[in-house]
Amino acid sequence: MISFGPVPSRRLGKSLGINNIISPKACSYGCVYCQVGKTIKKSIKRETFFKSEIIFEKVEEHLKRLSSENYPDYLTFVSNGEPTLDINLGRSIELLKKIGIPVAVITNASLLGDDSIRKDLRLSDLVSVKMDAGDNETWQKVNSPAPRLEFEKVTEGKNLFASDFKGILYTETMLVEGLNDFSENLINVAKLVHDLNPAKAYLSIPIRPPARSSVKAPGPEKLNQAWQIFNDMNINTEFLTGFEGTNTGFTGNIYEDILNITAVHPLREDSLIKLLQSDNADFGVVDSLIRQRLIRISVYGGEKFYMREYHLNI
């Protein structure tokens, strides 16, 4: 389950996802809003998950199974965890760029103090970095970083990367009611984002089932305040608050399509139904996967989502 989609992306158009982290979820953060669920293995140590050649081979095979109208705009590392924990990330990016489709990496940016990680990410065409907190206390509450990470060093790493990255740089700030939507944090985050000078800064809200069930999106007044603060600092700011749409890519193998997508990208029910129609399959496939405990249902914001089910012996 290395590649999935393409899925509609509010940032990247049609995005062919690449999951380069083997389950259980390995990440340097344990964000309260994470759509993949709770972090099982909190780590800051790079390791081998897949050989780069395997990732390249699987992505090529996937692309061959797509129709021309489903061809992606980006090949995107968006993982069941933090993609920069993969020690082979740079080599994988180099191989994938031979395909001729831009390569993007969605990262929490917590490990950019590492020279080797900055070197790897410079190979990509687009990088999106997480910017949820403007101080250590808020960072701990929202992102729950691994013990050896330090807020100041993480911030320094982002600045070092931004200073010499030649591709497109985005930032994304996930706003959570009562945790990081207060004025002081918004101002501090905006200052940090301004220092990075991204092509665009996205303000987003949770729209899928989060790791912590109590997580909610801020109200309209808080969202407007956040946008005004960013805009006042001359930051090119855009909201990511809407549903991306139901046009999920398909390969013709409905079982693989559902399992690969839901591993890192919960499927809203209308998107799942559209995927079934595209693959000429009926809802019995979904019922079967639920009975086998391969996927599960979760309700969030009044919408029903289908998510990958993991059974871990840890």
Describe the structure.
This protein has 314 residues and is of the alpha/beta class. The chain has a single domain, classed as Aldolase class I (TIM Barrel, Alpha-Beta Barrel). The chain contains ten helices and 13 strands. It has helices at 52-64, 89-96, 115-121, 136-143, 151-164, 183-196, 220-232, 254-262, 269-278, 284-291; strands spanning 3-9, 13-18, 26-27, 41-42, 74-77, 103-107, 126-130, 168-174, 200-204, 237-240, 267-268, 295-300, 303-308. The strands form three sheets. It has an eight-stranded mixed sheet. Helix 7 (220-232) links the parallel strand 9 and strand 10 (237-240). Helix 1 (52-64) packs parallel to helix 2 and helix 2 (89-96) packs parallel to helix 3 (115-121). The radius of gyration is 19 Å and the shape is globular.
